[in-house]
Amino acid sequence: MSATTITPAAERRLSNHVSLSQTLANTFTMAHRGLIKIKRTPEQLVDVTVQPILFTVMFTYIFGGAIAGDPLDYLPFFLPGILVQTVLTTSIVTGTQLREDMDKGVFDRFKSMPIARIAPLSGALVADTIRYGIATVLTFVMGYLMGYRPEGGFGSVVVAGLFVIVVSWALSWVFAFFGVIARSASSVQGISMIILFPLTFLSNAYVPAETLPGWLQAFVGINPISHLVTAARDLTTHGTVGADFWVALLGAAVVVAIFAPLTVRTYMRRA
Amino acid sequence: MSHNNEGNTMNTSSDWAVEAHGLVKVFGDNRAVDGVDLSVRAGSIYGVLGPNGAGKTTTISMLATLLKPDAGEARIFGHDTQREAQIVRQLIGVTAQFASVDEGMTARENLMLFCRLLGLSSAESKSKTAQLLEQFSLTDAANRTLRKFSGGMRRRLDLAASLIAQPPLIFLDEPTTGLDPRTRAQMWDTIRGLVHTGSTVLLTTQYLDEADQLADRIAVIDRGRVVAEGTADELKASVGSSSLQLRLENTGDVDDARRVIQAVLGVQAAVSPEATRLTAPMADVDRVTELLVTLRDAGIRLTEMSVQKPTLDEVFLTITGHGVEDEQSAEQSPEAERVSA
Fold first, then answer.
1. Between A12 and A27, where is the model more confident?
2. How large is the average pLDDT for residues A236-256?
3. Picking from A67-76, B6-15, B65-74, B142-151, which range would have the lowest pLDDT averaged per residue?
């Protein structure tokens, strides 16, 4: 043993509160933990690497001829759609991984340490933006390899990518909430897919809304995913920011405003 | 439970590391902890002894702010575990029964993570990590992920992580369960070393000789309640100076034999879990001859007779009236493990 002596409890400076700066510092340390884990187990990136490649190629050649007459002509329409679909699906993993993580022994240590209670949660959300980034870049790269040349230019593509990442991050709070309340990781996956699957398919991501029956068009019109897709499409094809952009951002803000406090409160109670 | 210093609650923060009163935790209809009182003097090693499922881990979890008690209250160095949870967390280190370290990272990454979370700078974290790895003989394995760690290494890393902030109170939940005898002895040395540096240690164990070896005071806990408390010697004295052990040839004679012992020695004999061995406190050695004669006259045949100095095993048996119920833990006595090691 080293000869250092322990400072007695009575002589320590103690505070029962966690400052905002400590919360931020703890969050980034936890995010760093997330990155280390990605580095240690790169196989957990399978979904954000294989899915963009597979889905982009697959759907372009399946639907391209039928919908646009030619896969190449379909790309400008379809790529923003599949981008949104891919990145949103990726954000489900935030919930499942959080659930798995919370069941691990190391969470007991986190809970017994004088750190911000929220840090393991907020850190995970921050680290996951890396995953969305990878999915976004790969989707655009696949498109480019297949001949996709967005008319909006490179700058608009970057903005569109960041825009989709921000909105997905907002939505990941919903899945984080499921992660906190669910009993198992697979149930998080299940609930999340049931919600996300119809939402992404019943939107204008794959086909123009005009081809759909009237009642479905009505739904597609109010589906927030449609606004997200339209906004991304405006950016990549025209380099313009329209009303849909702001509607989608507003929707994202509302989701965060509702689910962030809800998730945090539930998490604090359970953690 | 009686304490010589009960009621002396004013003088809290310096004297008592832990004061718990009437802690209760209920899971469904299982009263896992059913009114536990504990007082641990600062600078001592305190052992909480009991079989699996007695409520040891639940008690520690409540003291360490991991679980909210359903009733009762606890103070750590005078700070309430619920109202001042964040302060309490600055004063404790917890080494849980199931290693609370991150499986997916290396030993070094784990310690770095905990250092950083505790607010150490990057450089401080590096030197602290290096120092702890060295101290716990983990330097060679520092860059391996924990999946490849043995149970003993994992436990050492877990303990190292609990010591980063040099907390004045350390909880060790079954620190040596599942360790081989050599590693166990090392862990004991480490625990003794901690107290030399001024820490208080509260450890749980199901090994009776571990509590005997390490702890200044022991609380025996059974079915969520403290059934005895005192120094190891006090507990042993409570069951008499030595005990007489009789092994019967015929287990059907157990009840008769107990009656004879009651009549001749005037004491209750405890029956071992396998019901072949009787243990009776032996206050008056002279009367043993009489007992043996009476047993022979009654036709109760013995296969073995021995006199034993009291062990905490008997203490447990005598206090609770039943053996260490979990057969696993009864079998896992150090002797049994030594054979397999």
1. A27
2. 91
3. B6-15
Reading phi first (left if > 0) and then psi (alpha if -120 to 50, else beta), residue A47 is in alpha
Residue A104 in this model has a pLDDT that exceeds 90: no
B39 residue type, one letter: S
The whole-model pTM stands at: 0.77
Alpha-carbon distances, residue A190 vs A201, B24, B36, B340 (angstroms): 17, 37, 42, 45
Q: How many domains does chain A have?
A: 1
How far does B77 lie from chain A, in Å, by closest CA?
Answer: 7
Q: Cα–Cα distances in Å, from B278 out to A138, A153, B302, B303?
A: 75, 90, 11, 12
Is ipTM strictly over 0.85? Answer: no
* In-domain check, residue A142: yes
Please give the structure tokens belonging to residue B318.
């005598």
Answer whether CATH 3.40.50.720 is correct for domain B12-104+145-236. no
The interface residues of chain A toward chain B in range 177-206, judged by CB-CB distance below 8 A, are: none
Residue ranges of domains in chain B: 12-104+145-236, 239-340
A32, closest residue in chain B (CA to CA): B113
Closest listed residue to residue B108, CA positions, set B139, B153, B136: B139
Q: Is B157 on the interface with A (CB under 8 A)?
A: no
B100 within 8 A of A24, measured Cβ to Cβ: no
Decide yes or no: CATH 3.30.70.100 for domain B239-340: yes
Order of strands across the sheet that contains B71-76: B30-41, B16-27, B71-76, B79-80
φ and ψ at residue B192, rounded to 5 degrees: -60, -40
